[in-house]
Specification:
heterodimer; A: about 170 residues; about 0% strand; B: about 425 residues; globular
Chain lengths: ~170, ~425
Protein backbone atom coordinates (compact mmCIF):
# COMPACT_ATOMS: atom_id res chain seq x y z
CA UNK A 1 0.00 0.00 0.00
CA UNK A 2 2.88 2.36 0.76
CA UNK A 3 4.21 2.06 -2.77
CA UNK A 4 0.95 3.35 -4.24
CA UNK A 5 1.13 6.39 -1.96
CA UNK A 6 4.62 7.20 -3.24
CA UNK A 7 3.42 6.93 -6.82
CA UNK A 8 0.40 9.13 -6.12
CA UNK A 9 2.50 11.74 -4.36
CA UNK A 10 5.05 11.67 -7.17
CA UNK A 11 2.24 12.40 -9.64
CA UNK A 12 1.17 15.23 -7.36
CA UNK A 13 4.67 16.71 -7.67
CA UNK A 14 4.51 16.43 -11.46
CA UNK A 15 1.18 18.26 -11.30
CA UNK A 16 2.78 21.02 -9.20
CA UNK A 17 5.63 21.37 -11.74
CA UNK A 18 3.04 21.58 -14.46
CA UNK A 19 1.24 24.37 -12.60
CA UNK A 20 4.47 26.28 -12.05
CA UNK A 21 5.14 25.77 -15.77
CA UNK A 22 1.93 27.65 -16.60
CA UNK A 23 3.17 30.61 -14.58
CA UNK A 24 6.62 30.58 -16.20
CA UNK A 25 5.13 30.19 -19.68
CA UNK A 26 2.72 33.11 -19.31
CA UNK A 27 5.30 35.39 -17.72
CA UNK A 28 7.77 34.61 -20.53
CA UNK A 29 5.01 35.28 -23.03
CA UNK A 30 4.35 38.71 -21.45
CA UNK A 31 8.09 39.46 -21.40
CA UNK A 32 8.64 38.41 -25.00
CA UNK A 33 5.61 40.39 -26.16
CA UNK A 34 7.15 43.53 -24.66
CA UNK A 35 10.23 42.78 -26.79
CA UNK A 36 8.01 42.36 -29.84
CA UNK A 37 8.29 38.58 -30.06
CA UNK A 38 6.19 35.63 -28.89
CA UNK A 39 6.17 31.94 -28.03
CA UNK A 40 4.32 29.99 -30.74
CA UNK A 41 1.21 28.14 -29.47
CA UNK A 42 1.80 29.39 -25.91
CA UNK A 43 -1.95 29.37 -25.21
CA UNK A 44 -2.17 25.71 -26.23
CA UNK A 45 0.79 24.71 -24.07
CA UNK A 46 -0.63 26.55 -21.05
CA UNK A 47 -4.02 24.87 -21.50
CA UNK A 48 -2.40 21.42 -21.79
CA UNK A 49 -0.28 22.05 -18.72
CA UNK A 50 -3.48 22.90 -16.85
CA UNK A 51 -5.16 19.66 -17.94
CA UNK A 52 -2.08 17.70 -16.86
CA UNK A 53 -1.92 19.58 -13.56
CA UNK A 54 -5.58 18.91 -12.70
CA UNK A 55 -5.60 15.22 -13.63
CA UNK A 56 -2.20 14.30 -12.18
CA UNK A 57 -3.10 16.00 -8.90
CA UNK A 58 -6.50 14.30 -8.50
CA UNK A 59 -5.18 11.21 -6.61
CA UNK A 60 -2.79 13.18 -4.37
CA UNK A 61 -5.64 15.55 -3.53
CA UNK A 62 -7.74 12.57 -2.48
CA UNK A 63 -5.16 11.14 -0.09
CA UNK A 64 -4.70 14.60 1.44
CA UNK A 65 -8.46 14.75 2.02
CA UNK A 66 -8.88 17.93 -0.02
CA UNK A 67 -11.69 16.83 -2.35
CA UNK A 68 -15.04 18.27 -1.30
CA UNK A 69 -17.83 16.00 -0.10
CA UNK A 70 -20.88 16.50 2.07
CA UNK A 71 -20.15 14.98 5.48
CA UNK A 72 -22.76 16.76 7.57
CA UNK A 73 -25.44 14.10 7.02
CA UNK A 74 -23.14 11.17 7.81
CA UNK A 75 -22.09 12.84 11.05
CA UNK A 76 -25.68 12.46 12.25
CA UNK A 77 -25.52 8.67 11.82
CA UNK A 78 -24.18 6.29 14.46
CA UNK A 79 -20.43 5.69 13.87
CA UNK A 80 -20.82 2.11 12.61
CA UNK A 81 -23.41 2.99 9.97
CA UNK A 82 -21.41 6.11 9.02
CA UNK A 83 -18.38 3.87 8.47
CA UNK A 84 -20.41 1.61 6.16
CA UNK A 85 -21.68 4.69 4.27
CA UNK A 86 -18.05 5.79 3.90
CA UNK A 87 -17.12 2.39 2.40
CA UNK A 88 -20.12 2.49 0.04
CA UNK A 89 -19.20 6.04 -1.07
CA UNK A 90 -15.57 5.07 -1.71
CA UNK A 91 -16.64 1.88 -3.51
CA UNK A 92 -19.08 3.82 -5.67
CA UNK A 93 -16.39 6.37 -6.53
CA UNK A 94 -14.01 3.52 -7.46
CA UNK A 95 -16.50 2.09 -9.95
CA UNK A 96 -17.46 5.50 -11.30
CA UNK A 97 -13.91 6.76 -11.75
CA UNK A 98 -12.82 3.37 -13.10
CA UNK A 99 -15.41 3.78 -15.83
CA UNK A 100 -14.33 7.41 -16.41
CA UNK A 101 -10.69 6.33 -16.72
CA UNK A 102 -11.69 3.62 -19.19
CA UNK A 103 -13.72 6.11 -21.28
CA UNK A 104 -10.86 8.61 -21.25
CA UNK A 105 -8.42 5.88 -22.28
CA UNK A 106 -10.70 5.10 -25.22
CA UNK A 107 -10.79 8.78 -26.17
CA UNK A 108 -7.00 9.15 -26.03
CA UNK A 109 -6.36 5.97 -27.99
CA UNK A 110 -8.67 7.31 -30.71
CA UNK A 111 -6.52 10.43 -30.90
CA UNK A 112 -3.54 8.09 -31.29
CA UNK A 113 -5.19 5.91 -33.95
CA UNK A 114 -6.41 8.81 -36.09
CA UNK A 115 -3.21 10.90 -35.59
CA UNK A 116 -5.17 13.91 -34.42
CA UNK A 117 -3.10 17.10 -34.39
CA UNK A 118 -3.56 20.34 -32.47
CA UNK A 119 -4.85 23.34 -34.43
CA UNK A 120 -2.20 25.85 -33.31
CA UNK A 121 0.95 27.22 -35.00
CA UNK A 122 2.85 24.15 -33.81
CA UNK A 123 0.87 21.00 -34.71
CA UNK A 124 1.36 18.47 -31.90
CA UNK A 125 -0.18 14.98 -31.89
CA UNK A 126 -2.95 15.41 -29.33
CA UNK A 127 -2.41 12.06 -27.62
CA UNK A 128 0.80 13.43 -26.09
CA UNK A 129 -0.82 16.12 -23.89
CA UNK A 130 -3.89 13.90 -23.45
CA UNK A 131 -1.91 11.03 -21.96
CA UNK A 132 -1.56 12.95 -18.65
CA UNK A 133 -5.35 12.90 -18.49
CA UNK A 134 -5.44 9.13 -19.04
CA UNK A 135 -2.72 8.48 -16.45
CA UNK A 136 -4.20 10.81 -13.86
CA UNK A 137 -7.73 9.45 -14.15
CA UNK A 138 -6.49 5.83 -13.97
CA UNK A 139 -4.49 6.56 -10.81
CA UNK A 140 -7.48 8.41 -9.38
CA UNK A 141 -9.52 5.20 -9.70
CA UNK A 142 -6.64 3.29 -8.08
CA UNK A 143 -6.57 5.79 -5.21
CA UNK A 144 -10.30 5.27 -4.65
CA UNK A 145 -9.83 1.49 -4.72
CA UNK A 146 -7.00 1.80 -2.20
CA UNK A 147 -9.21 4.00 -0.02
CA UNK A 148 -12.03 1.45 -0.13
CA UNK A 149 -9.62 -1.30 0.90
CA UNK A 150 -8.16 0.75 3.72
CA UNK A 151 -11.62 1.60 5.03
CA UNK A 152 -12.63 -2.05 5.03
CA UNK A 153 -9.51 -2.96 7.01
CA UNK A 154 -9.94 0.04 9.30
CA UNK A 155 -6.67 1.72 8.27
CA UNK A 156 -6.26 5.52 8.22
CA UNK A 157 -7.18 6.89 4.78
CA UNK A 158 -5.90 10.45 4.81
CA UNK A 159 -2.51 11.98 5.51
CA UNK A 160 -1.96 14.34 8.44
CA UNK A 161 -2.98 17.93 7.73
CA UNK A 162 -0.12 20.38 7.48
CA UNK A 163 -0.16 24.15 7.19
CA UNK A 164 -2.45 24.64 4.21
CA UNK A 165 -5.53 26.67 3.47
CA UNK A 166 -8.82 24.85 3.25
CA UNK A 167 -10.47 24.99 -0.13
CA UNK A 168 -10.57 27.56 -2.84
CA UNK A 169 -13.37 29.70 -1.58
CA UNK B 1 -44.59 15.47 -17.21
CA UNK B 2 -41.21 14.65 -18.71
CA UNK B 3 -39.82 17.74 -17.00
CA UNK B 4 -41.17 16.59 -13.66
CA UNK B 5 -39.78 13.08 -14.13
CA UNK B 6 -36.35 14.31 -15.25
CA UNK B 7 -35.92 16.85 -12.49
CA UNK B 8 -37.18 14.22 -10.04
CA UNK B 9 -34.55 11.72 -11.19
CA UNK B 10 -31.81 14.38 -11.13
CA UNK B 11 -32.67 15.65 -7.65
CA UNK B 12 -33.04 12.10 -6.28
CA UNK B 13 -29.69 10.92 -7.72
CA UNK B 14 -27.82 13.98 -6.46
CA UNK B 15 -29.49 13.85 -3.07
CA UNK B 16 -28.71 10.17 -2.48
CA UNK B 17 -25.10 10.39 -3.69
CA UNK B 18 -24.24 13.63 -1.90
CA UNK B 19 -26.01 12.49 1.27
CA UNK B 20 -24.03 9.27 1.23
CA UNK B 21 -20.84 11.34 1.19
CA UNK B 22 -19.81 10.73 -2.41
CA UNK B 23 -17.36 13.45 -3.53
CA UNK B 24 -19.20 16.33 -5.22
CA UNK B 25 -17.38 16.08 -8.57
CA UNK B 26 -17.94 12.31 -8.75
CA UNK B 27 -21.63 12.71 -7.83
CA UNK B 28 -22.09 15.32 -10.60
CA UNK B 29 -20.50 12.97 -13.15
CA UNK B 30 -22.67 10.07 -12.01
CA UNK B 31 -25.83 12.22 -12.31
CA UNK B 32 -24.71 13.11 -15.82
CA UNK B 33 -24.40 9.41 -16.66
CA UNK B 34 -27.86 8.71 -15.24
CA UNK B 35 -29.46 11.53 -17.26
CA UNK B 36 -27.64 10.41 -20.42
CA UNK B 37 -28.60 6.74 -20.16
CA UNK B 38 -32.19 7.19 -18.98
CA UNK B 39 -33.33 10.13 -21.08
CA UNK B 40 -31.16 10.17 -24.23
CA UNK B 41 -29.85 7.64 -26.72
CA UNK B 42 -26.43 9.30 -27.00
CA UNK B 43 -23.26 7.14 -26.61
CA UNK B 44 -22.08 8.44 -23.26
CA UNK B 45 -18.38 7.36 -23.28
CA UNK B 46 -17.65 9.28 -26.45
CA UNK B 47 -19.00 12.47 -24.92
CA UNK B 48 -17.27 11.98 -21.59
CA UNK B 49 -13.78 11.90 -23.16
CA UNK B 50 -14.40 15.04 -25.21
CA UNK B 51 -15.87 16.94 -22.26
CA UNK B 52 -12.98 16.00 -19.97
CA UNK B 53 -10.40 17.15 -22.50
CA UNK B 54 -12.08 20.33 -23.74
CA UNK B 55 -12.90 21.54 -20.24
CA UNK B 56 -9.59 20.68 -18.58
CA UNK B 57 -7.31 21.92 -21.37
CA UNK B 58 -8.90 25.36 -21.26
CA UNK B 59 -6.92 28.55 -21.71
CA UNK B 60 -9.52 30.64 -19.83
CA UNK B 61 -9.29 28.36 -16.83
CA UNK B 62 -5.50 28.82 -16.47
CA UNK B 63 -6.21 31.98 -14.43
CA UNK B 64 -7.65 29.81 -11.69
CA UNK B 65 -4.56 27.93 -10.40
CA UNK B 66 -2.41 31.04 -10.73
CA UNK B 67 -4.71 33.18 -8.58
CA UNK B 68 -4.89 30.36 -6.03
CA UNK B 69 -1.11 30.13 -5.98
CA UNK B 70 -0.81 33.90 -5.50
CA UNK B 71 -3.09 33.71 -2.45
CA UNK B 72 -1.10 30.77 -1.05
CA UNK B 73 2.16 32.71 -1.36
CA UNK B 74 0.73 35.83 0.28
CA UNK B 75 -0.79 33.76 3.10
CA UNK B 76 2.76 32.81 4.10
CA UNK B 77 4.13 36.40 4.11
CA UNK B 78 3.97 39.11 6.76
CA UNK B 79 1.25 40.86 4.77
CA UNK B 80 -1.41 40.44 7.47
CA UNK B 81 0.85 41.94 10.19
CA UNK B 82 1.64 44.87 7.92
CA UNK B 83 -2.03 45.38 7.09
CA UNK B 84 -2.88 45.51 10.78
CA UNK B 85 -0.18 47.97 11.81
CA UNK B 86 -0.75 50.15 8.76
CA UNK B 87 -4.53 50.31 9.08
CA UNK B 88 -4.86 50.50 12.88
CA UNK B 89 -3.95 54.22 13.22
CA UNK B 90 -6.27 55.06 10.30
CA UNK B 91 -9.47 53.55 11.71
CA UNK B 92 -8.70 53.45 15.46
CA UNK B 93 -10.70 56.62 16.25
CA UNK B 94 -13.88 55.65 14.38
CA UNK B 95 -16.79 54.34 16.46
CA UNK B 96 -16.05 50.63 16.62
CA UNK B 97 -12.31 51.28 16.55
CA UNK B 98 -10.06 48.49 15.38
CA UNK B 99 -13.01 46.27 14.40
CA UNK B 100 -12.92 48.24 11.16
CA UNK B 101 -9.47 46.74 10.51
CA UNK B 102 -11.33 43.49 9.83
CA UNK B 103 -13.48 45.16 7.17
CA UNK B 104 -10.77 47.22 5.47
CA UNK B 105 -8.10 44.54 5.91
CA UNK B 106 -10.34 41.86 4.37
CA UNK B 107 -11.31 44.28 1.59
CA UNK B 108 -7.66 44.91 0.75
CA UNK B 109 -6.61 41.28 1.03
CA UNK B 110 -9.62 40.27 -1.08
CA UNK B 111 -8.21 42.45 -3.83
CA UNK B 112 -5.08 40.28 -4.02
CA UNK B 113 -6.65 36.94 -3.18
CA UNK B 114 -9.45 35.02 -4.82
CA UNK B 115 -10.69 33.08 -1.85
CA UNK B 116 -12.73 34.02 1.17
CA UNK B 117 -11.25 31.22 3.29
CA UNK B 118 -7.75 32.60 2.58
CA UNK B 119 -8.95 36.14 3.30
CA UNK B 120 -10.55 35.17 6.61
CA UNK B 121 -7.59 33.03 7.68
CA UNK B 122 -4.93 35.59 6.74
CA UNK B 123 -6.58 38.63 8.31
CA UNK B 124 -8.06 36.78 11.28
CA UNK B 125 -4.75 35.16 12.28
CA UNK B 126 -3.50 38.62 13.28
CA UNK B 127 -6.62 40.65 13.98
CA UNK B 128 -8.47 38.24 16.30
CA UNK B 129 -5.65 37.97 18.90
CA UNK B 130 -4.97 41.74 18.68
CA UNK B 131 -8.64 42.64 19.18
CA UNK B 132 -9.00 40.14 22.01
CA UNK B 133 -5.96 41.45 23.90
CA UNK B 134 -7.33 45.00 23.68
CA UNK B 135 -10.70 43.89 25.12
CA UNK B 136 -13.02 44.09 22.12
CA UNK B 137 -16.27 42.13 22.48
CA UNK B 138 -15.99 38.72 20.86
CA UNK B 139 -19.21 39.05 18.90
CA UNK B 140 -17.87 42.24 17.36
CA UNK B 141 -14.43 40.83 16.51
CA UNK B 142 -15.56 37.40 15.26
CA UNK B 143 -18.76 38.52 13.54
CA UNK B 144 -17.08 41.31 11.61
CA UNK B 145 -14.27 38.98 10.53
CA UNK B 146 -16.63 36.27 9.30
CA UNK B 147 -18.75 38.81 7.44
CA UNK B 148 -15.90 40.73 5.83
CA UNK B 149 -14.00 37.55 5.01
CA UNK B 150 -16.67 36.72 2.44
CA UNK B 151 -15.52 39.79 0.46
CA UNK B 152 -12.75 37.52 -0.85
CA UNK B 153 -15.31 36.15 -3.31
CA UNK B 154 -16.80 39.42 -4.50
CA UNK B 155 -13.81 41.74 -4.75
CA UNK B 156 -11.69 40.68 -7.73
CA UNK B 157 -9.72 38.54 -8.28
CA UNK B 158 -12.13 35.78 -7.31
CA UNK B 159 -11.87 32.01 -7.72
CA UNK B 160 -15.64 31.52 -7.65
CA UNK B 161 -16.11 34.21 -10.31
CA UNK B 162 -13.63 32.37 -12.55
CA UNK B 163 -15.61 29.17 -11.98
CA UNK B 164 -18.85 30.97 -12.88
CA UNK B 165 -17.27 32.70 -15.88
CA UNK B 166 -15.89 29.43 -17.26
CA UNK B 167 -19.06 27.44 -16.60
CA UNK B 168 -21.44 30.14 -17.88
CA UNK B 169 -19.11 31.24 -20.70
CA UNK B 170 -19.11 34.85 -19.60
CA UNK B 171 -16.08 37.20 -19.74
CA UNK B 172 -14.08 36.82 -16.53
CA UNK B 173 -12.68 40.34 -16.84
CA UNK B 174 -16.19 41.80 -16.96
CA UNK B 175 -17.25 39.75 -13.95
CA UNK B 176 -14.22 41.00 -12.03
CA UNK B 177 -15.08 44.61 -12.80
CA UNK B 178 -18.76 44.05 -11.94
CA UNK B 179 -17.71 42.90 -8.45
CA UNK B 180 -15.85 46.09 -7.53
CA UNK B 181 -18.74 48.44 -6.64
CA UNK B 182 -20.86 45.81 -4.82
CA UNK B 183 -17.71 44.87 -2.85
CA UNK B 184 -17.12 48.48 -1.78
CA UNK B 185 -20.81 48.82 -0.97
CA UNK B 186 -20.68 45.77 1.31
CA UNK B 187 -17.59 47.18 3.06
CA UNK B 188 -19.51 50.41 3.72
CA UNK B 189 -22.52 48.47 5.01
CA UNK B 190 -20.38 46.32 7.33
CA UNK B 191 -18.55 49.37 8.70
CA UNK B 192 -21.80 51.28 9.22
CA UNK B 193 -23.22 48.36 11.16
CA UNK B 194 -20.06 48.11 13.31
CA UNK B 195 -20.26 51.84 14.10
CA UNK B 196 -23.96 51.66 15.04
CA UNK B 197 -23.47 48.51 17.14
CA UNK B 198 -20.55 50.12 18.98
CA UNK B 199 -22.59 53.23 19.79
CA UNK B 200 -25.34 51.01 21.20
CA UNK B 201 -22.96 48.69 23.12
CA UNK B 202 -20.18 50.99 24.41
CA UNK B 203 -19.01 48.29 26.83
CA UNK B 204 -17.97 46.09 23.89
CA UNK B 205 -15.41 48.56 22.58
CA UNK B 206 -12.35 49.61 24.62
CA UNK B 207 -10.95 53.17 24.62
CA UNK B 208 -8.82 53.86 21.54
CA UNK B 209 -5.04 53.38 21.71
CA UNK B 210 -3.09 56.55 22.51
CA UNK B 211 -2.60 58.82 19.52
CA UNK B 212 0.39 57.88 17.39
CA UNK B 213 2.66 60.74 16.23
CA UNK B 214 2.35 61.72 12.57
CA UNK B 215 5.81 60.48 11.58
CA UNK B 216 5.15 57.03 13.01
CA UNK B 217 1.76 56.91 11.29
CA UNK B 218 3.31 57.67 7.93
CA UNK B 219 6.02 55.08 8.54
CA UNK B 220 3.36 52.47 9.26
CA UNK B 221 1.30 53.55 6.28
CA UNK B 222 4.31 52.79 4.10
CA UNK B 223 3.89 49.13 5.04
CA UNK B 224 0.76 49.10 2.88
CA UNK B 225 2.65 50.14 -0.26
CA UNK B 226 3.58 46.63 -1.47
CA UNK B 227 0.04 45.31 -1.27
CA UNK B 228 -1.42 48.45 -2.87
CA UNK B 229 1.16 48.08 -5.65
CA UNK B 230 0.08 44.49 -6.17
CA UNK B 231 -3.60 45.49 -6.35
CA UNK B 232 -2.81 48.15 -8.94
CA UNK B 233 -0.72 45.67 -10.94
CA UNK B 234 -3.36 42.95 -10.97
CA UNK B 235 -6.75 44.70 -11.03
CA UNK B 236 -5.34 47.78 -12.75
CA UNK B 237 -4.08 45.76 -15.70
CA UNK B 238 -7.48 44.07 -16.07
CA UNK B 239 -9.35 47.35 -15.68
CA UNK B 240 -7.13 49.10 -18.20
CA UNK B 241 -7.82 46.27 -20.63
CA UNK B 242 -4.12 45.52 -21.20
CA UNK B 243 -4.13 42.02 -19.66
CA UNK B 244 -6.33 38.94 -19.73
CA UNK B 245 -7.29 37.42 -16.39
CA UNK B 246 -4.58 34.77 -16.84
CA UNK B 247 -1.87 37.35 -17.54
CA UNK B 248 -2.96 39.43 -14.58
CA UNK B 249 -2.77 36.29 -12.44
CA UNK B 250 0.75 35.50 -13.64
CA UNK B 251 1.80 39.08 -12.85
CA UNK B 252 0.16 38.61 -9.45
CA UNK B 253 2.18 35.44 -8.76
CA UNK B 254 5.39 37.28 -9.66
CA UNK B 255 4.42 40.26 -7.48
CA UNK B 256 3.56 38.00 -4.56
CA UNK B 257 6.93 36.24 -4.89
CA UNK B 258 8.70 39.64 -4.89
CA UNK B 259 6.79 40.72 -1.76
CA UNK B 260 7.66 37.41 -0.09
CA UNK B 261 11.33 37.79 -1.04
CA UNK B 262 11.57 41.32 0.36
CA UNK B 263 9.69 40.31 3.50
CA UNK B 264 12.15 37.46 4.05
CA UNK B 265 9.52 34.73 3.92
CA UNK B 266 10.50 33.22 0.58
CA UNK B 267 12.10 29.97 1.68
CA UNK B 268 12.24 26.88 -0.52
CA UNK B 269 9.98 25.20 2.02
CA UNK B 270 7.34 27.97 1.80
CA UNK B 271 7.55 28.01 -1.98
CA UNK B 272 6.93 24.27 -2.23
CA UNK B 273 4.15 24.37 0.37
CA UNK B 274 2.39 27.18 -1.50
CA UNK B 275 2.74 25.41 -4.83
CA UNK B 276 1.51 22.05 -3.53
CA UNK B 277 -1.41 23.72 -1.77
CA UNK B 278 -2.37 25.55 -4.95
CA UNK B 279 -2.05 22.38 -7.02
CA UNK B 280 -4.37 20.40 -4.77
CA UNK B 281 -6.92 23.19 -4.47
CA UNK B 282 -7.08 23.60 -8.24
CA UNK B 283 -7.41 19.82 -8.69
CA UNK B 284 -10.27 19.86 -6.18
CA UNK B 285 -12.03 22.66 -8.05
CA UNK B 286 -11.11 21.05 -11.38
CA UNK B 287 -12.89 17.81 -10.45
CA UNK B 288 -16.08 19.70 -9.57
CA UNK B 289 -15.86 21.78 -12.75
CA UNK B 290 -15.38 18.66 -14.89
CA UNK B 291 -18.28 16.92 -13.18
CA UNK B 292 -20.43 20.00 -13.77
CA UNK B 293 -19.34 20.29 -17.39
CA UNK B 294 -20.40 16.68 -17.99
CA UNK B 295 -23.73 17.22 -16.23
CA UNK B 296 -24.24 20.39 -18.32
CA UNK B 297 -23.73 18.44 -21.53
CA UNK B 298 -26.16 15.78 -20.31
CA UNK B 299 -28.62 18.58 -19.59
CA UNK B 300 -28.27 20.07 -23.06
CA UNK B 301 -28.98 16.67 -24.64
CA UNK B 302 -31.95 16.00 -22.38
CA UNK B 303 -33.49 19.44 -22.77
CA UNK B 304 -34.33 19.85 -19.10
CA UNK B 305 -33.00 23.44 -18.78
CA UNK B 306 -35.02 24.69 -21.75
CA UNK B 307 -38.16 23.00 -20.41
CA UNK B 308 -37.45 24.64 -17.08
CA UNK B 309 -36.96 27.99 -18.82
CA UNK B 310 -40.36 27.66 -20.52
CA UNK B 311 -41.99 26.74 -17.25
CA UNK B 312 -40.48 29.75 -15.48
CA UNK B 313 -41.43 32.12 -18.33
CA UNK B 314 -44.98 30.78 -18.31
CA UNK B 315 -45.28 31.07 -14.52
CA UNK B 316 -45.22 34.87 -14.72
CA UNK B 317 -42.81 35.14 -11.78
CA UNK B 318 -40.89 38.04 -13.32
CA UNK B 319 -37.30 38.96 -12.50
CA UNK B 320 -37.85 39.99 -8.90
CA UNK B 321 -40.00 36.97 -8.13
CA UNK B 322 -37.52 34.57 -9.69
CA UNK B 323 -34.61 36.12 -7.82
CA UNK B 324 -36.56 35.92 -4.55
CA UNK B 325 -37.38 32.25 -5.10
CA UNK B 326 -33.81 31.43 -6.15
CA UNK B 327 -32.33 33.24 -3.15
CA UNK B 328 -34.39 31.20 -0.68
CA UNK B 329 -33.46 28.04 -2.58
CA UNK B 330 -29.72 28.88 -2.62
CA UNK B 331 -29.64 29.75 1.06
CA UNK B 332 -31.14 26.33 1.87
CA UNK B 333 -28.69 24.66 -0.51
CA UNK B 334 -25.86 26.64 1.07
CA UNK B 335 -26.41 24.90 4.38
CA UNK B 336 -25.22 21.63 2.86
CA UNK B 337 -23.23 22.48 -0.24
CA UNK B 338 -20.10 24.57 -0.74
CA UNK B 339 -20.15 27.68 -2.90
CA UNK B 340 -18.41 26.26 -5.95
CA UNK B 341 -20.84 23.34 -6.16
CA UNK B 342 -23.77 25.74 -5.90
CA UNK B 343 -22.35 27.84 -8.73
CA UNK B 344 -21.75 24.91 -11.08
CA UNK B 345 -25.13 23.32 -10.36
CA UNK B 346 -26.77 26.67 -11.08
CA UNK B 347 -24.99 27.16 -14.37
CA UNK B 348 -25.79 23.56 -15.43
CA UNK B 349 -29.50 23.63 -14.70
CA UNK B 350 -30.92 27.10 -13.97
CA UNK B 351 -28.85 29.54 -16.04
CA UNK B 352 -30.66 28.99 -19.38
CA UNK B 353 -33.94 29.82 -17.64
CA UNK B 354 -32.41 32.90 -16.03
CA UNK B 355 -31.16 34.18 -19.39
CA UNK B 356 -34.51 33.38 -21.04
CA UNK B 357 -36.27 35.63 -18.52
CA UNK B 358 -33.97 38.42 -19.71
CA UNK B 359 -31.53 38.64 -16.79
CA UNK B 360 -28.01 39.82 -17.68
CA UNK B 361 -25.56 36.92 -17.00
CA UNK B 362 -22.92 39.33 -15.67
CA UNK B 363 -25.39 40.81 -13.19
CA UNK B 364 -26.58 37.31 -12.29
CA UNK B 365 -22.97 36.28 -11.64
CA UNK B 366 -22.53 39.13 -9.17
CA UNK B 367 -25.80 38.25 -7.48
CA UNK B 368 -24.82 34.58 -7.31
CA UNK B 369 -21.48 35.46 -5.70
CA UNK B 370 -23.24 37.39 -2.90
CA UNK B 371 -25.56 34.43 -2.35
CA UNK B 372 -22.55 32.13 -2.20
CA UNK B 373 -21.04 34.51 0.36
CA UNK B 374 -24.10 33.78 2.48
CA UNK B 375 -23.48 30.06 2.01
CA UNK B 376 -19.95 30.56 3.37
CA UNK B 377 -21.38 31.60 6.73
CA UNK B 378 -24.43 29.33 7.07
CA UNK B 379 -24.05 26.23 9.28
CA UNK B 380 -23.48 23.34 9.30
CA UNK B 381 -21.32 23.62 6.16
CA UNK B 382 -19.77 27.09 5.94
CA UNK B 383 -16.11 27.45 5.05
CA UNK B 384 -15.58 30.75 6.82
CA UNK B 385 -17.11 29.29 9.96
CA UNK B 386 -14.63 26.39 9.79
CA UNK B 387 -11.72 28.78 9.37
CA UNK B 388 -12.81 30.82 12.39
CA UNK B 389 -13.42 27.65 14.36
CA UNK B 390 -9.79 26.72 13.68
CA UNK B 391 -8.59 30.18 14.71
CA UNK B 392 -10.63 30.48 17.92
CA UNK B 393 -11.60 26.95 19.00
CA UNK B 394 -15.23 28.06 19.41
CA UNK B 395 -18.12 25.86 18.30
CA UNK B 396 -19.74 26.41 14.90
CA UNK B 397 -23.04 27.37 16.48
CA UNK B 398 -21.49 29.92 18.82
CA UNK B 399 -19.78 31.54 15.84
CA UNK B 400 -22.99 31.38 13.79
CA UNK B 401 -24.85 33.40 16.42
CA UNK B 402 -22.26 36.16 16.15
CA UNK B 403 -22.49 36.14 12.36
CA UNK B 404 -26.29 36.58 12.03
CA UNK B 405 -26.25 40.42 11.63
CA UNK B 406 -23.64 40.17 8.86
CA UNK B 407 -25.75 37.54 7.12
CA UNK B 408 -28.66 39.98 7.21
CA UNK B 409 -26.42 42.65 5.66
CA UNK B 410 -25.70 40.25 2.78
CA UNK B 411 -29.47 39.79 2.35
CA UNK B 412 -29.80 43.57 2.26
CA UNK B 413 -27.06 43.68 -0.39
CA UNK B 414 -29.02 41.22 -2.55
CA UNK B 415 -32.16 43.39 -2.21
CA UNK B 416 -30.20 46.53 -3.14
CA UNK B 417 -28.55 44.78 -6.07
CA UNK B 418 -31.93 43.58 -7.38
CA UNK B 419 -33.55 47.00 -6.94
CA UNK B 420 -30.59 48.84 -8.48
CA UNK B 421 -28.85 46.51 -10.97
CA UNK B 422 -26.57 49.39 -11.96
CA UNK B 423 -24.55 48.74 -8.79
CA UNK B 424 -22.99 45.83 -10.68
CA UNK B 425 -23.40 46.85 -14.31
CA UNK B 426 -22.48 50.57 -14.23
CA UNK B 427 -18.71 50.14 -13.95
CA UNK B 428 -18.72 47.40 -16.61
CA UNK B 429 -20.50 49.76 -19.02
CA UNK B 430 -17.96 52.51 -18.25
CA UNK B 431 -15.08 50.16 -19.04
CA UNK B 432 -16.30 48.37 -22.14
Amino acid sequence: MLLTRHILNFCGSLAALSLAGIGVLILSQIGLRLLGSQIPSADDFAAWALSASIFLALPATLIHGDHIRVTSLCQLLPPKIAHIADIVAAGFATVMMGWVAWAIFGYVSESWTYHELSQGVIAVPLWIPQSAMALGSALFAVAFAERTGRLIFGLPVELEKTDTLSGGE
Amino acid sequence: MDLLLQSGVLIFTLFVLLGLGVWVGVALMASGVVIFTVFTSTPVEAILGTVMWVHSASWTLTALPLFIWMGEILYRTRLAENLFSGLAPLVGRLPGGLAHVNVVGCGIFAAVSGSSAATTATVGRISLPELKSRGYAERLAIGSLAGSGTLGLLIPPSIVMIVYGVAAQVSINRLFIAGVVPGLMLMALFSTYIAIWSKMNPSGVPAPDPRIPMGERLRRLRMLFPVVGLIIGVIGSIYAGVATATEAAAIGVLGALVIAAFGGSLSIQNLIASLMGATRTSAMIGLILLGAAFLTSAMSFSGLPSDLAELISASGLGTTGLIAVLTVFFVLLGCFLDGISIVVLTTSVVLPAVIAVGIDPIWFGTYLIIVVEMAQITPPLGFNLFVIQNLTGKSIFEITRMVVPYFMILVLAVILLTAFPQIATWLVEQTY
